[in-house]
Amino acid sequence: MRRGCSPMKNRWILLKVVTGITFAVLPSLGGDCESLGQLTLPATTLTAAQAVPAGSFSPPTGTPLKNLPSFCRVAGMIKPSNDSHIQFEIWMPSSGWNGKFQGIGNGGFAGAIEYNGLADAVQHGYAAASTDTGKLLIHLWCRSPVEFSGCREVARQ
By C-alpha distance, which of 78, 80, 77, 62 is closest to 118? Predict the structure, then answer.
């Protein structure tokens, strides 16, 4: 079995980062989305902080999403342990925030950020976040030609 942070500890770290960015920053955002990219957070690397204009948005994977309001997009990676790599995106409406946060799940052994869910949430005024739950890297690691301890346990999750 792999050593490092427990899945529960990883979830708490992820929850702290996502809610910290959303609730500490969103009320005072004031149109300065890009400055979020300079935040320093424990075990976290921010890879994007961009103001996205209203209209369509092409996510890194998938098809373009249409009819979106303007929003602030923050993307990054959380690495609470040496063997962890959790990618995330947080979308926050530039205006018309309903004061609520929506966590977007991706179900089962999913290893992808749910862009359609983020789009739906921001269209309805929610600040929202989605992660790959760290499963994308684990999925690729377990498909390696070399057998690694822990892959059977991960597959059963």
Answer: 62
CA distance 54 to 38: 24
Say if CB 110 and CB 135 are below 8 A apart.
Answer: yes
Contact call for residues 46 and 76 (beta carbons, < 8 A): yes
Contacts of 24 (CB under 8 A, 6+ apart): none
* CB-based contacts of 78, cutoff 8 Å, min separation 6: 13, 14, 17, 43, 44, 84, 86, 88
Q: On the CB side of 78, how many CA atoms lie within 13 Å of its CA? A: 26
Residue of 104 and 10 predicted with greater confidence: 104
74 pLDDT tier (thresholds 50, 70, 90): very high
- CA quadruple 121, 24, 8, 62: dihedral sign: positive
Domain residue limits, the chain: 7-155
DSSP class of residue 33 equals: G
CB of 42 closer than 8 Å to CB of 63: no
Reported as a pLDDT band with limits 50, 70 and 90, residue 99 is confident
On the CB side of 110, how many CA atoms lie within 13 Å of its CA?
13
